Amino acid sequence: MIKKRKFPLLLTLGTAGGLISSGVAAYLVLLLQNPLPRNLPTGVNIIPQDAVFALSLSTNTGQWRKLREFGTPQLQAELEKNLADWRDRLFADSGYNYQRDIQPWVGEEITIAIVSTQNQKPPLKPIASDEQDITLAQGIMVVIPVANPVKAQQILANPTNLKAGKWVQRTYKGITIKETQNPGEQNYSAALLNGQFLVVSDHPTTLDKAINAYKDGTSLAKTPGYTDNIRKITTTQPFAEVYVNVPLAAKIATATSNRQLPAQVLAQLQHNQGLAASINLETQGVRLQGVSWLKPNSNRTHRVQNNAGKMQNRLDSETLMMLSGGNLEQLWQDYAITSQNNPLAPLQPEKLRAGVKSLTNLDLDRDFLRWMRGEFSVAVIPATPTPGQAQDFRAALVFMVQVSDRQRGEQTLEKLDLVMKNQLQFQVQETSIGGNPVVNWISPLAGGKLTATRGWLDNNVAFISLGASVTDKIVPKPQITLASTSKFQQTVPSELNPNNGQFFLDVDSAVKNFPLPTMFPNQQIFLESMHSLGITAAVSDRHSTRYDMFFHLKKISQTQFPPPPIRKQDRK
Predict the structure, then answer these.
(1) Residue 538 CB: number of other CB atoms within 10 A?
(2) Distance of alpha carbon 115 from the chain centroid
(3) 533 with 505: CB under 8 angstroms?
C-alpha cells in the first residue's frame, strides 16, 4: 500500500518549521506531563487503537550500514529497491535530502502506521461478524520524533514551494494543523504534538484520529495486552518493530482478496488481539523476537505446555530440515478448529480425515492421534551416496512421536500392516537394524524401490521413514546428533527454554540438492543469501505465545558489494 501511494512527507513537512517553532516552548514545559511509556516503540501513544499495522524503523545510520553487510549482491539490490531507500521515497519528492535536512533533528526511530478510517473514501463491503461492522478503508500516518526542535526549526523554516495548490491552516482540539489544498491531487496534513512528534498523514480524518488517541488516552499503547506483551520482546536498540492487529488485518485481507476467508474462520480470528515483533541485527544475521496474544475476554485460551526439545537429540547430524512440537494431538485439535472449511489452509482437516479413512479404513483422530500426545518431529534426512550406484531417492521423510499409550499404538500399527499388505499390496517384511526390530513396507510399484520403515525407539517413541534408506542413521541413536552440530546451535534460538516446538532448515544444503516450493516472490534470491534458519516457540501463558527466529546470513565482501561511503555527519 505504501509503495503504491507515494507519500512525499516533506511536501507537508515544508510547513513544519512554523509548527516546530511554536512548539519549542510546549516541548520544554509539557515533556514531563505526557511522557511516552517506557520501552515502547515511538509513537504508540499517538497511533489509534484501530491501527491495522505499525512499523517502526531505526534512523541510526550504523544499523543501516550493518544491514548492508548481509546477503548477496542480488539481495542487497532488492533491499535497495524495496526497503533501504524508504527514506528517499518519503522525502525526495519535495526536494529534501534525508541526511542533510532530516537527520540533524529526527529521533531514534520513525513509525509508519496504517489506520482504519471512516468516511475517508467509499468503504469496502463490510464483513459480517459478531462485532459491529467497521469501514475497511485505511489511511497512512507517519510519526517523526523531534529530538532537536531548535535544529528542526532552523532547517524547515523556509519550506520548498508547492508545485500547485496552496497551504491552509486549521485547529483541532487546540492543535494547529497545516494542510495542502490541491484539487485532483493527493493532499497531506501535518501537526506537531507538544513539540515532541511531527505527525503527517494522507488525510485529515487520520490525523484527527491520531490527535484523539493522544489527547483522550485511546492510543495503541492502551490496547488490551499491548504494553505487557511488547515488553516481552523489548530490546535495547532494535532495527525495526512491527505490530499487526490480527482480526482487523484478516478482515481487510479477505475483503481485498479473490479468495475470501469463511465467516467461521474470521470468527476464530476475532479471539486474537495482536502480533508483534522486534527485529535486531547481530554479527551473524538477523534475529526476530515475536509475541502473539489473545483478547482478554476471549473464551479461547492456550494450554500451557512446553514439552519439546528432545527430538533433535534423536536425529542425525546431516538432517536438512526438522519441525518439532510438544503435543501432536493438541496441535492437531487446535489446527482443526481454526482451519476447518478454510480454503486457504495448506492442509484441510476434513479432507485429510476423509483420505485416511478411505485409504486405510482407520479413523485419524481415534485410531492414531489419541495415543500421540507427546513430542513429535518431522525431518528430512539425506541418504549416504553409494559409489557407482544411482540413487532413486536422495532423502527420506522421517516422522517420530513420543506416545502416551504404546499398547494402543502397537494395535493401530498392526492394523496398518494388514492394510498395507492386503489392500495396498505392499510387501510387509519384519527385520532388524542394529538389534532393533523394524517393519518394512515395500511398494509393488517402482520395482520395489519405494520403501517405508517403521519401528520403536527407547520403548515409547514410534517412527516411520519414507523414501531413501536412512533408518540406520536413527536406529540405534546416532553418534553425532543434530543437536550437537554447531550449525544447529548457532541457528536455533535457545533462550525460550522450555519450549513448545522448534524448526531448523539447513538452507545451504537444501538449496543445493533439492527443489524447494515457491512460497513468496524472489524466494531464490533470499534463500541464496542464507546459511540456515531456526525458530523456537513457547507458550508464555494462557493468553500469549512467544516466538524467536534467527536468520543465519551470508556476508558480502568489500569486493562484492562495497557499502556506501560514510558521510561526515555519520562519523560519530
Answers:
(1) 22
(2) 20
(3) yes
Question: What is the per-residue burial (b if ≥16 Cβ within 10 Å, else e) of 36-56?
Answer: beeebbbbbbbbbbbbbbbbb
Number of domains in the chain: 2
Question: Per the domain annotation, does 367 fall within a domain?
Answer: yes
Contact 11, 188 (CB under 8 A): yes
Query: Could you tell me if residue 98 is inside a domain?
Result: yes
Taking only the tens place, the pLDDT of each residue in 84-115 is 555 555 565 455 667 777 788 899 999 999 99
Within a domain: residue 559? Answer: no
Q: pLDDT at residue 571 above 70?
A: no
Among 42, 35, 45, smallest CA distance to 220 is for: 45
CA-to-CA distance for 378 and 511, rounded, in angstroms?
A: 19
Do 331 and 271 share a structural domain?
no
Beta bridge partners of 552: 285, 532
Return the C-alpha cell found at 128. 459480517
CA atoms within 13 A on the CB side of 268: 13
The per-residue pLDDT for range 289-308, each reduced to its tens digit, is 999 999 988 888 888 989 99
Q: Which long-range contacts (CB under 8 A, 24 or more apart) does 159-164 make?
A: 159/13, 159/14, 159/15, 159/16, 159/17, 160/10, 160/11, 160/14, 160/94, 160/95, 160/96, 162/11, 162/14
Does 176 reside within a domain?
Answer: yes
The pTM assigned to this predicted structure is 0.84
- CA-wise closest residue to 499 among 454, 543, 529, 537: 537
Domain with 498 in it: 304-511
Cα separation, 279 vs 243, whole angstroms: 12
d(CA 481, CA 148): 55
Across 91-194, the runs of DSSP E, i.e. the strands, are 109-116, 138-145, 166-172, 175-181, 189-193
How far is residue 127's CA from residue 206's CA, in Å, rounded to a whole number? Answer: 22
Cis peptide before 476 (omega within 30 of 0): yes
Angle between helices 16-30 and 149-156 (to 10 degrees): 170
First-to-last CA distance in the chain? 35
Q: Which residues pair with 545 in a beta bridge?
A: 292, 539
Query: Which of 428, 551, 537, 556 is CA-nearest to residue 491?
Result: 551
Distance CA 548, CA 538 (A): 9
pLDDT digits (tens, 9 = 90+) for 532-553: 999 999 999 999 999 999 999 9
Helix (H) or strand (E) holding 337: helix 328-339
